Amino acid sequence: MKAGIPELPHISHQRSYRSSLLTMFFVLLFLVWAIHMVKPLFDPDFYWHLKTGCWIWDHRALPMIDPFSIPPQPEDPHRARFMLTSYWLFQLMLCAFYKIAGFGGILVFRFILATIIIAVFYRFSVEKKLFTALVAGIGITQLLEANFPERPQFISFICCALLLSLIFTHLAERRRGLLSLLVPLCLTMLLWANTHGGFILGDILLLCILLAEAFKFIHPKLEPVSGREYLNLAVSICSAMLISILNPNHIYSFEMIRSYAEASSIIHTPMLETSNLYEYYKEVGGTGPIIAVCTYLFTLIIFFNSRGRTNITWIGLLLLLGYMGLEHIRYYTFFLIAAILFSIRHFDTTVIRKVSMSVIIVFLITVVMLSLSKTPQNLKRISQYGWIPTAYFPVKVCDYLIDHGIEGNVFTTVNWGGYVLWRVAPQRKIFIDGRLLDLARTWEYFNMDNNWKKVFDKYDIRVVILPTYDAPNKLSEFTVKVEMDPEWQLVDRNNNGSLFVRKQLLSQDILGVP
């Protein structure tokens, strides 16, 4: 509108109405996300992260050797040390919130982290319009549904979103100042490197961005930045990559790339977190595959109708992260983050039609409804059992173990290891948990069906905690094997878990005999 010409009343009324509608939509989305965040602590790895954070707090040091597992220590010291120390800052945050307000503090921590990543997306969007809210809503709902904010990996998601937001805002606004990018980028990588090993991916993304922006100098149509601007970008990125080495593992952190590949080849066991997208959803089932495929197609449509479809830096990042997300379920969220940022910044809203908008709205409603479908059940579980889901973890069995003072090395499943570790370690040592520190022991765990007695003798296992059922009304085969063995005595059982103790350790007190 030209200066000096008053705005017509009906136009002013329309803008006010749209602004109010958009505000109500944002409030509704925040309410949906808030409701979704109120769920029990399902993640088994959360418990060993919390336990490690409390250990660091109590000892005022990082664990150089594992204080919770049965000796001997793993043969690969670098891999074990990386797993023990690379999450230290996040683990201390968990410990702090837990010490302040128990599991209620962890819920607050959830909301804080979720709010931060939402704020990054909101700040990056140029136009605060309905389409922006719809796209962000689809992505963020998936992100919160598929991931636990109380897990260090969520910091990787925040730092990835912040890293891309900082760099592409700097490039879009053609800022000439060095410090405006250098300082926040270095702080982001420093935080990332001390909370989660995923910072290695951050270094890879930084390097890809630097090379892609250099490639633009080949031809003016690629719209390269000026030489001064590229120099500032290069200095900022190189400084951020160097400062990421300031973590407990220093340069040895990058050995984890090789170590991780070796671990997958040694164990020869398909883990859900290391599966590709098809294998993961084939195992888990549900509507996940459809939502993921729709997200890829949705991103592709937005890309070809965007102002940034000729930006080779964005093309490279979306292709790289898109491929990684297909091949490895753990990286799908990183692709989702990049897709959200690209869409809310570059999509040309002038080409969108009513039919397209309707499809997007239906997609968002579908994602939200699927996300909230478990909410009533989650709220019921919290009201009945508290934040720890007793249907998922051996809560009562661990209570029995502690109340009766049963000592000795403990064997349990890898999915229960983190929770059992939190409850009974370090007074009792654990055979295995989600950290999988010792590759040799991990191989033994996944291949012990016929020689489990030898493994138990080798590690002096005195206590065994196993699931009672593999499926509804179907006793666990391995649990039945232990129960039938004359060396072991069943001392406690419920619908969730069974507790066995070597008979030579039995006493009347352990058996509950007065």
Explain what you see:
The protein has 514 residues and is mainly α. The chain has 22 helices and six strands. It has helices at residues 9-37, 44-59, 77-85, 88-124, 130-146, 153-172, 179-193, 199-215, 227-243, 255-267, 277-284, 288-304, 312-327, 332-346, 354-372, 375-385, 395-403, 414-424, 439-446, 452-458, 477-484, 508-511; strands at residues 409-412, 461-467, 469-471, 474-475, 488-493, 497-502. The strands form two sheets. The chain has a four-stranded mixed beta sheet. A two-stranded antiparallel ribbon has the order 3-4. A hairpin with a 2-residue loop joins β3 and β4 (474-475). α7 runs parallel beside α9 (227-243). It is globular, with a radius of gyration of 26 Å. The N and C termini lie far apart (88 Å). 37% of the residues are buried. The model has no long low-confidence stretch (mean pLDDT 85).
Summarize the structure.
The chain contains 22 helices and 6 strands.
